[in-house]
Structure formats: structure tokens, C-alpha cells
Amino acid sequence: MDVADIPRVPDWFQGYLESEGIDALYPPQAEAVERGVTEGDNLVAAIPTASGKTLVSTLAMLSSIADGGGKALYIVPLRALATEKNEEFAAFEEYGLDVGVSTGNYESDGGWLAGKDIIVATSEKVDSLVRNDAPWLEDLSCVVADEVHLVDDSHRGPTLEVTLAKLQSLNPDLQTVALSATIGNADELAAWLDADLVDSTWRPIELEKGVHFGDALHLEDGTQSRVPVRGNEDQPAAIVRDTLEEDGSTLVFVNSRRNAESAARRLGSTTEPFCSPAEKEQLTAVADEIREVSDTETSGDLADAVEQGAAFHHAGLARDHRSLVEEAFRDRLIKVVCATPTLAAGVNTPSRRVVVRDWRRYDGTAGGMQPLSVLEVHQMMGRAGRPGRDPYGEAVLVAKSHDELDELFERYVWAEPEPVESKLAAEPALRTHILATVASGFANSRGGLLDFLESTLYAEQTGERGRLETVVDDVIDYLDVNGFLTREGTDLTATNLGHTVSRLYLDPMSAAEILHGLEDAEEPTALGLYHLVSRTPDMYELYLRSGDEEEFTMLAYEREEELLGATPSEFEDGFEDWLSALKTARLLEDWASEKEEDEITERYGIGPGDIRSKVDTAQWLLGAAESLATERDLGLGPDIREARTRVEHGVRAELVDLAGVRGVGRKRARRLFETGIETRAELREADKSRVLAALRGREKTAETILENAGHRDPSMKSVEPDADVTVDDDETDEPTTTQDQSNLGDF
DNA sequence: CTTCGGCCGCTTTAGACAGCATGTC
DNA sequence: CTAAAGCGGCCGAAG
């Protein structure tokens, strides 16, 4: 289809497409237009990644905005994707459209999304906006749900499902466009959303799947190519080398962080000979940047690998590490990235070849190694082939025996992805969504609730109410008993507490746990509070290693006084979870006692990125705890606030005031304190040469900080550092004049 | 007496959203 | 209930 023939898109759109080098639509896109995406019709597009899904959504959003002046909402599963999409859509600002992002940690323009035409948000954020009754929601005329196949996810799927159902019921004229990977039952999704279906496996660039075994690559079409394993190479190394000989890069998916790291280390010797001197120089620069992000073992290992043209990528990395690796890989500087599934679901990092080395992954709940789903493997494989740059893409599984070769072909290469199934009937999901549905007025009786749930994918797929009804009744009981809602006959009303919990976006069970723990707390310590929020279902658990059980049982006895609520017996069910929460609490306490990052990562066996995510969650939950304590008049506000500010900045109590100054973090606050500047007020009046000395002579930094503290005259002109002030200078980095303004959240 | 290499057995194991109000070293 | 890589400890042989 010619771009000129697309109905109802704004006039400038054709010019825009041409400027992007697009003169004809891909077949699935053309089919979407024929099904009426530009005319406000609902659509489910189940097509492979990188085959133009974004353009389908753009067609829908732009035509919908042009048609009635409404707004479009683009829902993504990850914050990183929200940023990526926002940057992509920012191109439309030139044509007079306003684009904004809204996620938990970032809201464009002070939260005033009302004036935006296109809003990008995570599903949880949209859910929260619906709960808080954001006024602009009624102006929505188009909603796009990216990666809808994630409704299958037991943890986060139900949120997406409920949110889409709520948006549709808020505004029956709303156009819904759902983008999905190729799945077994796209027709069911279409039926649920009352949408037309475009179901296609068409790709703009050929993808050949295959299995490597012995010295050969066995491809889907029956052909084989020789990819011999030489010397002490393993199979992935042989494939990576073979790809490099054609000047292509490789993405290797493995099943654990440790495997990713060790595979990257090994592959370094394969990639190094293929890096030109100029590339080596650039790689060294990237490696230096990586070392600067964090002073930990993980960081150093990554930098070492990068110097050789290899890298690993997993969730233990800091956000900056990840984006440095992704960027260098896209620039073809890094030749191979060994990754856990983070990269398959995350931002766009295509590669000539993809190797799926491990096809089984440990799963504690299933009691051992479990095969990956076809959908997941296909998603990884779909990363092969960069449109417009590679002639084709190849995705390869690795077999160690002839039997495995056959099995992999059967199981993944020729297999259809499994159908997507709603996980809404699980109790934890319903707990939070039922409360929210009642609190935000979507339903005010048992019947109303069931009617609403009737509009979800779950109802579409099961057809019978029985199972759902039982769970719903259990959940209503739970919410009633814990004081989140009240029942009168079949009528349901959310209590004040219920409203608060729903607004705070807290799992009701977390709220109950927190309230229960706070109720008879008199002077809660930081550790006690950290433990309380750590044992909440909203906090992701740390793994207990061998020896940990003993260590933390001891700690539990030593500091029993501080721990809130009853200490469970060692033989009780749930004792392990309780201990694991204690481990998390201890980690947070260490962080809030100014323990060094590398000491923490080593002690708890985690990566720098993990500290950040724990700290983030704790901060959020303590904020919620403070609201709950206020709501209940428990008078613990100051204690909770102090614990929260301490984790937020990673400092002891005496530095909380100083660390609150913009530009002053845990390290600078400590150094200022050591020189006798102990509070924000003292900093405001401080002797400048003293401040400069405390900051080890960095004038620009000192000026910024004094300005932020409200100093009368922050200028550092002709100020010399006070020679009497000594600061411990354990860091080796050169005084920088470049102001690195990445933030704590990027850490 | 020290050092190196190989083998055996024990240990460990993916991911990451949200309130609110602003930003490290 | 299922696996497999990596690492540390141990042992023996070589230096």
C-alpha cells in the first residue's frame, strides 16, 4: 500500500514517512489499515518484533488525535521502554504534537499530562492513574498496549488486563490497539478486546532459525553450514567467531547471571583479535566509563570484558552499565553480549546472530530446571537481524548431542508459541485489583464486581464463573476482615484505609503487614522498620545462601527487641521468608550506615543494580508506611521519615540534613561533616575555603553546592582550600571538571 | 618444602512495577 | 522430582 492511500491520517504524515525513508507500508501494516486502524477500529496486531508494530500504533494514535482532538496513551511494560518510545514519538513534536512520559520515577512537566497529545506510561502507572481518577483520562480516544502477550505473566499480567478493561469501560468509544508477539491464541485476545485481528509472521528481514551441533549449523530450511569448533573453543565461541568473520555481532542468551559473566570473560579472547586499534581505543574509553559508574567487582569485571570487545548484561548491573553496554553494542564496538532475559524484553538491541545457549532455567517453585517457553525463546530469537543493516538474521540454539539436536528442532524451531493465558484468578492479583475496583467506584457490590470481571480476558477464556466467584468471595472476606472495605448485604464500600491503600498502590497484604507491625511499636529503629517493609509482598526477596540461615538466626536473637511483631519460631512455616526479609533489612541498614557499595555487593552476593532496586523499593514502602501511620494516628511519623531518608541517601542519621542539599550525596555529606560542617544551616554560613577543602578542591562542585544550600555568595573565585582541613582521599579518580549529572537513580 | 594441576563435590541459580517530590562522587 | 557451571578444597606429582 502506498503511503498516500492511508485514510484519515494528518496531512503532514506522508511527508514525515518520506523523511524517514518509508514509501510503502509493510504487508501487516497495510492489513491493519484495511482493518480500519486509522478509522478508530479496535485492532490486535500479533506480528513479530521489528516488523513495524510501532508504525501500526502510530497510525492509530495520529489518526485518532487528528480526528477528534483526543489524546492517545501508549502502554509499555518497562520504564526503559517508556523512555525509548518517548524519544521515538518526540519526532512528532515538530508537527505540533506534545508527547510526555509518566512512570513511577519520572513524570514529564511536573505531572501535568493534561496538555499532552501522546502519553507513554507503564501499565502500573496507568492503573494508578485510573485509581486516582486522573481527569484527562476521559479525553483519551486511543490506547495502545505494547507487548500484550504479557497478560500471561502471573505477577504483572493482571494489572495490564484489568487496566485495559477499565479504560474500555470508562470510555466505550475508546479505540484499543494491542500489539503482541506471535502467539498461539491471538484470536482470543481479539475477541476479548472486541477487535479485528492481524496475525502474521511476516518480517522485513529474513530470520533463519537453526541448531548448532558438532561442526555444523543445521538450519530450518534443511540446509547446513559448516561452523567448526576449533581448539579449545566451545560452541558459542565458534559461532561468535564465524559471525565475526562476516563482520557481524552476536547476542548470546544464557540462564544465569554468573553464566553471563563467565561466558563474556571467555568470549573476550574470541572477540579481541577482531577489534581494530581504533576500536580498542574506543572500547577502553567505554570501559573507563563503566568503572566510573560503580566501584564494585561486577563493574570491574564488565570493564575488563568490554576492553576485549565482549560484555555481559543482566539485572544486577546498574542502569548506567546497561545503557553503556547497549549503546556500544548498537555501535558495533562490542562484538558480543552475553545476556540473561533482561535483554530479550528490554530496549531494542538487534544483532546479526542470536545464540540461545541455555534452554532450561532454574525454577525453585517447580523444583529444578525448567525448559523455557517457546514464546520466550522466539522472543530472544526475534532479536536477530537488524532491519536495513543486515542482509538476514540467524538465531541458533546449541545442542550437545544428536538427540538434543532433534529435540530442539521439535521443541523450539518448528514449534508454535503457546497460547497466552490470563492469570487474573490468582489471589494476590485479585486482592489488589478488587480493592482498587471498589475504591475507585467501578463496582460497589459483589455482583457489580463480578460483572466488571466479566469484561476481562479471564472471563473470555474460561466462560464459567465458578472458580472466579470462589476466589472473589475469599478476597472480599480478606479485605473485610482487615478493614479495607465493609459489607452491607451485597454492597461493598471501601473504608478510608482502603482508599489510602489503593491510592498508595500498595498490595493490601503489605498494608496489613505494615499496620500490624506498627501498631505496638513504640520507638521503632531503622532495622525494625526495614525488616517490616522487607517482609511485605511488595519487596522482592533475597536468596538465602548456605550459612545465611545460621547467621541471620543469630542476628534475629541479638536484635530481637528491634524487630516488630512476633518472631516466628524456627520450625514454623514462613520462618525462612522472615529470615530472608531480615537479610534484606540488614542490607538496607548497611547502606544507611554508609558501608561501601563494594562491601555490600560482596557481603550479600548481589550486583550494584540490586542495591539500587532494594533501596528504591524500601524508600517507596517506607513512604507508604508513613502515610499509613499518619492515617491511623500512630505518631510514628518522625521515626519512619528518618529511616526513609537514611536509606534514600545511604547515610547515618547525623547526615540526613546535609544529604538533603541538592548535589550532596553520602560521600560529600560525610566529608563536610568531618570538617565540622554538620548541618545545612552551617553549610549556608560556612567558610568557603573550608568547604572547598572538604570537597577536595573542586570549585565547580563547591559553587553548585553552596548555591543549592542558599549561601549568600557561592562564588569560589580566588578561594583557596583551607590547608588545615584534611580529608581522606581514598579515591583515585582525577579531579574532574566535567559535571557528570547522572542521578542516583541511574546508579 | 613449595607449587601447580587435576579432580571431586558442594553451592548456586531471571526479572523489576508502584507514592511523592527532586537529583551522586 | 528433573541440571549444570563454577569454584574451592584436596591430593598427588613435579620442581
From TrEMBL:
GO biological process: DNA repair
Organism: Halovenus aranensis
Keywords: ATP-binding, DNA damage, DNA repair, DNA-binding, Helicase, Hydrolase, Isomerase, Nucleotide-binding
Highest taxon, organism lineage: Archaea
Subunit structure: Monomer.
Lineage: Archaea, Methanobacteriati, Methanobacteriota, Stenosarchaea group, Halobacteria
Sequence segments annotated as region (Disordered): 702-747
UniProt biased composition (Acidic residues): 721-734
Keyword DNA-binding tagged: yes
Family annotation (InterPro entries): DEAD/DEAH_box_helicase_dom (IPR011545), Hel308-like_dom4 (IPR048772), Hel308_SKI2-like (IPR050474), Helicase_ATP-bd (IPR014001), Helicase_C-like (IPR001650), Helicase_Hel308 (IPR022965), P-loop_NTPase (IPR027417), WH_DNA-bd_sf (IPR036390)
Domain Helicase C-terminal: 235-436
Catalytically driven reaction(s): ATP + H2O = ADP + phosphate + H(+); Couples ATP hydrolysis with the unwinding of duplex DNA by translocating in the 3'-5' direction
Function comment: DNA-dependent ATPase and 3'-5' DNA helicase that may be involved in repair of stalled replication forks.
Domain annotation Helicase ATP-binding: ranges: 34-201
Sample GO molecular function, one term: 3'-5' DNA helicase activity
Listed name of the protein: ATP-dependent DNA helicase Hel308
Chain residues that bind ATP: 29
Protein family according to the UniProt entry: Belongs to the helicase family. Hel308 subfamily.
EC number: 5.6.2.4
